[in-house]
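dumping this here so i dont lose it
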């Protein structure tokens, strides 16, 4: 079933100029980039996006990291896109990520883990609408 998911290429990856390498991994996994923009998040943007984590001990560090440089926001489309993207990203902690995944190959740490991807179709819809208008998504 064709679905959409939301993806972020994080500041550790934009800093190292490896966004193309990451996009190639996504495309090779069968995902299509149907919306994309490079932005610098404000503190308020990052706090709003990660509001679900606001009680977590790592929240302030996460917000500081996500505002430390540009991010690339994407909508990815494909067959079972949410699960497929999570598979190609690998585990949140790069030390646990399977060989060949984006995080195994490129992530620097649990925080600087190169990419974010939605964890469910429901959250994908919420995250997409937080960051993109319908007119910006071209399938
Ligand atoms: P992401 O998928 O963007 O969602 C929240 C992020 O918090 C996560 O990826 C990690 O990069 C980051 N993070 C930092 N510390 C932790 C932690 N202890 N547990 C889970 N996520 C963490």
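and the seq i came up w/
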């Amino acid at each position: 079933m064709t679905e959409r998911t939301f993806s972020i290429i994080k500041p550790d990856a934009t800093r190292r100029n490896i966004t193309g390498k990451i996009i190639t991994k996504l495309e090779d996994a069968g995902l299509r980039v149907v919306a994309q923009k490079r932005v610098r998040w404000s503190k308020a943007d990052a706090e709003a996006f990660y509001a679900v984590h606001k009680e977590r001990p790592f929240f302030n560090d996460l917000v500081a990291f996500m505002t430390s440089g540009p991010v690339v926001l994407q909508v990815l489309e494909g067959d079972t896109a949410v699960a497929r993207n999570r598979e190609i990203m690998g585990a949140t902690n790069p030390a646990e990520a399977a060989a060949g995944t984006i995080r195994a190959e490129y992530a620097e740490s649990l925080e600087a883990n190169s990419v974010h991807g939605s964890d469910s179709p429901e959250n994908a819809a919420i995250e997409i609408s937080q960051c993109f208008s319908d007119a910006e998504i071209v399938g």
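The chain has seven helices and four strands.
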